[in-house]
Please model this.
Amino acid sequence: MYRIVYKEKLAPGIWMMKIMAPLVARKAAPGQFIILRVDERGERIPLTIADYDRQEGWITIIFQEVGLTTRLLAGLDEGDNVLDFAGPLGRPSELDGFKRVLGIGGGVGVAPLYPQIKYLWENGCHVDVIIGARSRDYLILEKEMGAVCNNLYITTDDGSYVRKGFVSDVLKELLERGNRYDRVIAIGPLIMMKVVSQITREYDVPTTVSMNPVMVDGTGMCGGCRVTVGGEVRYACVDGPDFDGHLVDFDEAMRRQQMYREEEGHICRVMGMEGV
Model:
């Protein structure tokens, strides 16, 4: 059992939890993820590690209520336990050797971006960051991100905070003004990562994206997390979750993302959680 030691609501339907998992924290690195199960009847879901403390032994996860399991998880409180918490899984992000990096986070994607930016900042890299959300209410980790970067740019879809527009708008402006980066790291909705990768390809800027498709076992056995990268089938749980954004088949990934929406909705209706 893994005890929840801290819980905070960051935005409507978006929660942060610190969970005691000393063995996971001891080995965790930016870019990796865990797979948890709320109870014995629950499904296994992957969540990227948003932060960790090796000495105190906790792992931070940030998640949005989008399906049955995340809604059940959100219903737990400090002092409650999660049944399974396996990790760290996946390949750590390759972050060493860069002098200038631009991080781009959209929506809940800001959470897994944070530990990578923090690592780069602590190791002397110049880091610029763009974060975006649908509105001010849904913007997360602004203060935390601002503390570990040189320049922080913020956009909101509806213009309710700082600047109206998308993260891709700021990206294009920065590149057009002559800013040069060794790497762009983009994490967020598939369509956002696709657009970002299209722009960076035009400017020949290497770009890493984080893929989070359906996962079951986290070991590459089930094949549910397969993505096509450079014309080859890769598995996000063992080959990723980071991939070259210029090589990912985003259109295929978006089609696969929609495959189980009807089934998820049916389960929520049966459990009486529709619209929660």
Notes: The two ends are 26 Å apart (CA to CA). The first strand starts at residue 2 and ends at 11.
